[in-house]
Structures are given as structure tokens and as C-alpha cells.
Cytochrome P450 (Cladorrhinum samala), 486 residues
Amino acid sequence: ASCAYLLRTKRRPIFPVVNDYPLDFFRQRAHREYRSNAKKLLADGFAKHGGPITVLVPGGSKIVLPSALSDWMKTNRDLDHQQLVREEYFDRFPGFEGLRAIHSPDNVVIDMLRAKLSAQNESILPAVDQHVAAALEEHWGDAESWHAISWDRDTTGIISRAAASVFVGPEKAADPEWQALVQTYVRELFTAVGKLHAWPAPLRPLVQWFLPQTSACRTLVRQARATMRDVVDQRAREAKTAADQGLEPPRYDDAVAWTQAAPNNADSNKPEAGDIQLALAVAALFTTTEALKQVLIDIARHPELVEPLREEIRQSLSDRWQVGQAALANMELLDSVVKESQRLVPLLVGLERKVIRDTTLPDGTRIPEGSHVMVDSSDMWSPEVHEEPESYDGYRFLKRRRAGHKATQFVQSSREHNVFGGGRHICPGRFFASSELKLCLAHILTKYDVRLKDGYRSAPIPSGFYAIVDPAAQLEVRRRGVSTGF
Ligand code: HEM
């Protein structure tokens, strides 16, 4: 047994290990504690050691640094987020092209998001607004009596369509087949990644050929590529016809058009249009849907927030439902509510990086190449940062904003709230996520009442350093007697 232990321990951990137990030769207890008790492991570890710690996780170990080292992490070029995605999400496997395209060498996806989905872009908002309205009608219906929604389908469906209005454009945004394709891809891909992690690393390249989820991903990539080739070809034909007739070609304001117009479009390294669409869905769908789900649960649990939010939405959009960036920026209480919901889903770590060459902490400790590092996120629920940190206060960030604190807005990442990461890899989709969420919630709160099923208690499900919003939440809704506008 000790030989097994020695074989597994490739290198001695440089920081104290917080889940190393006597006689736990096969690390069963270490992994169990990590999976179900990580919050306490980290809290106790930092209290005891007062500095960086190591946590044993299935397949290896991870270094967690105190949040005081966030700025060091953000600016350190020896640490890389892309390498982490490459290794931890297996982006070289066939079928995972949608993941690979996020970090394609020409950076087409991230450059496009930074340029086109900034806080300034107004032109995309009407399409998002229109698709959110249509998706809500389709998924939540118009029954004026209380009825349960299908929790995952009827939240994912709205975010997916809101995003598609900007990602894939008018031809496919409302197409149920396309919606099913991208949603299934994201689900199968993340499931496949989880399954692959359960296998020893050397076997994964073989195992991936036999998992049903990876096989589904390969099929879906082929379908996405074929569909998007048709869209691109059709647009090229339209442009040619218009040019032949001396007319202006139709204009498109979506990710298909933006990436086609990218300077290196002719580059043979450029990912296919279908891969780009899948990449956008991989980055945008699960994250934003999780945020919507949690805020819906929190609003249902705090009905006292509903009227003030409705009033703020009414004032921001005016009686004519005038959607624009200024209107969204005026929804300060809503912004605070969404950020507060995000604060309490216990994502225990942030700024995950791979060490791509040996690096040195400010105190001189060397961290070797290949290490997996991240920072502790417990400032989000620390009594030193927040009053009554365990309780939900929708006004929390609004009050902090009015009191002159920094980084109080949803899109602002900081040491105390690093849910969007930071430094050169900071989430380039956060402005869009904010617009989508605000528009969804503006429609939902204006048109629907929401509540949790009587007696139902909901809590996020922790899984190691991460957590998912309650996947079985029972949300009931009813249509109010109000149409769009007011
Ligand atoms: C509430 C929703 C979202 C959350 C919580 C979120 C969170 C994150 C986080 C934590 C990172 C890693 C940053 C780092 O480690 O420094 C990230 C990266 C990224 N996000 Fe988001 N994200 C969200 C929505 C979106 C959306 C809507 C898009 C696309 C429109 C998007 C696109 C990306 C991309 C492309 C990256 C990779 C950046 C890079 O590697 O340089 N995200 N996101």
C-alpha cells in the first residue's frame, strides 16, 4: 500500500496538505472530504497554516493560495488559463472542437467578444429583448394560474435563445433543432469531461473513443459545421445577388458576421463557423443559466424584493419599454440582486491557472511548472468584508455602491468577488451575461409572479471546489395580467 502511495505521489507537495489522513493509502477519505466538505477543508487549512495549502483531488493535487495573492496571480505570465482548459477539459479530443475554438490560435472568439459584446454595444439589445420575450412565452406560457415550470429546460431555453439572437443570428436563433443541438452539445461535453476525469490520465485518450457522450459530441460537431456552412453560404449568395442588382447587401449584426469579417478569416487555422458557435455555447450557456436559476430561487424566497424591482424596471425602461445600455445600467437594485445571488453559490476558488514554467511567490517560495493553482474565494462570505455574510440581502451591493465601495457592480471582478476571474483572462462575456440576465429578469418580473413550491427548500449542491444551483428546484409561475411595455 505504501508503494502505491509513493507511486501516486509524483512530487512532494510544497504546501501543507489539508486532506492527508493516516492509513488513507488509496486516498478514498481524502477525495470524499474534498467532494463533500471542501469549504471546511479550506477554512480550517487557512486558519491553521496561514498561507498557501494543497488539497488532494481525484487525479492529483491543487494548490490554493490566499486571496491576498490575487493580484500576483492576475499579473503573473508564468500562469496560464488556456493551458488549464487544454489539460483539464481535454480540448484536443475529437468532438471537443467547440471547446478548442475558445482558445484557437487566432483568438477569434475572445477578440470578437471583447470588441462586440462590450458594455457599449447597444445594437444587439433589441434582438436579445425580442427573443427573450418569445422564449418566455414559449417556455413559461400565459396561464394565469400557478403552474410549475420544467426547471432546467425552461431556464436554459430562455438563456440559450437570448444568446443565439446574437451568436447565430436570425436564421437559426429560434430554430428548435439548432437550439437542441447546442444545448445537447454543452450537456454532453461537460458530462464527458466529468467521466474522463474518473479514469487514470494515461487511459483517457483510449476511453474517449468509447464514451457515448464523446461520440455524441463528435456527431454534433459534424452537424453544427454542416448547418453553419449552409448559413454562411446562404449569406454569401444573398450578398452576391444584391451586388449583381446594384443593391446594398443585407447587414447582419451577429457572431457569424463578426467572425466572418475578422481580419484573419482566410487563415486556414481559423476554426469553422460551426466550432465557433459551439465554443460560444460552451462558454456562455451553463454559466449564465446557473446565474438565472439562482436569482430566480432567491427572488422567489424574498418576495419583498419584487415590487421595488418592478418599479425600478418600469422607471428604467420607461412606459415604452425602451431597451438600451443606459436603461440596463439604471437597474441598480437588479444588478445588486444578481450579484448577491452569485455571492452565495459557494464557488470556493477562482483564478484557476496552470503553472507553465517554474514561478516564485512574493515570499520566495518556488512553485514548479505543471502545478495547478487557484485562489481562495472565501472573502465573498467573510465577516471582515460583509455584514451578516451568511444571509441574503438583495440590497447589499447597492448599499456598498452608495457607500462608495469599489467593484460593487455585477460585471466588476475584484479580490473580494472574483466570480468572473481577472487579469488577461477575465471573462470577456460578462457584459453580455449582465445584459441577458437583466433583460430576462425585466421580462419575467414584469409579466410573471414566481414562487417556490410550497414547502420546498432549495440549496446549491456542492461538489469539491465548485457547486451547482439546485438542479431539482421546483419553481412555480403565473402570468400577470400585463403585456409587454406596461
Ligand atoms: C454569469 C455568467 C458567467 C460567468 C460566471 C463566467 C465566468 C467566467 C470565468 C470565471 C472565467 C475564467 C476567468 C479567469 O480565470 O480569469 C471565464 C472565462 C471566459 N468566459 Fe465567462 N462567464 C460567464 C458568462 C460568459 C458569457 C455569456 C460568455 C460569452 C458570451 C463568456 C465567455 C467566456 C470566455 C470566452 C472565457 C475565456 C477567456 C480566456 O480564456 O481568456 N462567459 N468566464
Q: What stands out?
A: The first strand starts at residue 53 and ends at 57. Residues 66-479 form a domain with the Cytochrome p450 fold (CATH 1.10.630.10). The pocket of protoporphyrin IX containing FE is lined by residues 81-82, 102, 109-110, 113, 117, 280, 283-284, 287-288, 291, 351-352, 419-423, 425-430, 432-433 (CB under 6 Å). The chain has a mean pLDDT of 93.
